[in-house]
Amino acid sequence: ARMGRTLVELFYDVVSPYSWLGFEVLCRYQHIWNIDLRFRPAFLGGIMQATGNKPPAMLPKRAEYMLKDIKRMAKYYQVPVQISEDDFQRVLGTRSLGAMRFITAIDMTQPQYLEPLSREFWIRFWSQREDISQPENILAVARQVGLSSELTQKLLEMISSPAVKNRLKETTEEALKYGAFGMPAVVAHFNGEPHLFFGSDRLELLGSVIGK
């Protein structure tokens, strides 16, 4: 972390609406809290599998609550998450691996695009209800954030490279090492130790732990 700044790592997957909420709030607070915010694109499917976690919406009562909760949070934080009951099936049916590998490739080559690119994937998936596992949607996202077609082509080729696959796998394993079992997983490095916060509703607590 830069001098006097607390390093905060955000492990996220664009298939997760709570990750989007946490991402936007941390983007807004990074300068107020003077944190060194590091985006860590990871694979939610891998985390669920490794920990034996189940998608929360599989419990009907919890799905019912999440629907209200995400709507309330979207309104409160002014993040355009659109959610309805059929979205839970949509999430289960969407593999975010390609999108997360594309985001990982950007992180490895053009990190300045990481924030806008990730946001655009969330917008496509959670505001415009598009299937981000389709290559044409990945292309549309890249175009929207101003990537040249040459660079986009290079990134698409990188998706299937061992370097990108391993990097995403390593980041996912790092999240697991910190104790993550879902997304977003936020890790604040304070007083020489990592503090894990799960979800987007623990950010006041994070602020308190790092003395903000």
Automatic annotation (TrEMBL):
<dbReference type="InterPro" id="IPR014440">
    <property type="entry name" value="HCCAis_GSTk"/>
</dbReference>
<dbReference type="Pfam" id="PF01323">
    <property type="entry name" value="DSBA"/>
</dbReference>
<comment type="similarity">
    <text>Belongs to the GST superfamily. Kappa family.</text>
</comment>
<dbReference type="GO" id="GO:0006749">
    <property type="term" value="P:glutathione metabolic process"/>
</dbReference>
<dbReference type="GO" id="GO:0004364">
    <property type="term" value="F:glutathione transferase activity"/>
</dbReference>
<dbReference type="InterPro" id="IPR001853">
    <property type="entry name" value="DSBA-like_thioredoxin_dom"/>
</dbReference>
<dbReference type="GO" id="GO:0005777">
    <property type="term" value="C:peroxisome"/>
</dbReference>
<feature type="active site" description="Nucleophile">
    <location>
        <position position="16"/>
    </location>
</feature>
<feature type="domain" description="DSBA-like thioredoxin">
    <location>
        <begin position="8"/>
        <end position="209"/>
    </location>
</feature>
<keyword id="KW-0808">Transferase</keyword>
<dbReference type="InterPro" id="IPR036249">
    <property type="entry name" value="Thioredoxin-like_sf"/>
</dbReference>
<protein>
    <recommendedName>
        <fullName>Glutathione S-transferase kappa 1</fullName>
        <ecNumber>2.5.1.18</ecNumber>
    </recommendedName>
</protein>
<dbReference type="GO" id="GO:0005739">
    <property type="term" value="C:mitochondrion"/>
</dbReference>
<dbReference type="InterPro" id="IPR044088">
    <property type="entry name" value="GSTK"/>
</dbReference>
<dbReference type="GO" id="GO:0004602">
    <property type="term" value="F:glutathione peroxidase activity"/>
</dbReference>
<dbReference type="InterPro" id="IPR051924">
    <property type="entry name" value="GST_Kappa/NadH"/>
</dbReference>
